[in-house]
Amino acid sequence: MSSPDKEFEEQLAEAGRKLLDPPSSVEDLLPLLDKAEYYLSRVEQSPSKSIESALSPCMKALVADKLFKHSDIDVKVAVASCISEITRISAPEAPYEDDVMKEAFQLIVSSFEHLDDNSSRSYEKRTSILATVAKVRSCVVMLDLECDALILQMFEHFLKAIR
């Protein structure tokens, strides 16, 4: 393995480890989530075993209650963005157990609620999540998990945004 690859793996793993014990300040947390998203966005589908291992801390941290159930809307969108990247990486397989995936999709769909607010701090992340959801056809997985109400809610958000 080349040195840049090893360095990337270390940076990805470190980003995840920092999120395992996230700072309480939103202003400190958002840059960490941005960094994690940056690294996740550079991981190809069907990654090597060593990249999968480097992904592990991030995958665990993002579904831990401190991040998954955070009260700040911008943190929620940033977490949803990271999870959508993990979903892209693992596609067509789901990266988490069904119950966790249902909650992850709930978080992702909730990020579309203010898609019409293009002045929002999280607007670009919301559109990026939407692009990823469309690209990896997450709706199919949502249907497999019987998340019909969630799909309906997602389309309600879309209709609200175009009105």
From TrEMBL:
GO terms for cellular component: chromatin; nucleus. The keyword DNA damage applies. It is found in: Nucleus. InterPro entries: Pds5. Pfam families: PDS5. Its main location: nucleus. Keywords: DNA damage, DNA repair, Nucleus. GO terms for biological process: DNA repair; mitotic sister chromatid cohesion. This is Uncharacterized protein. The lineage of its organism: Eukaryota, Viridiplantae, Streptophyta, Embryophyta, Tracheophyta.
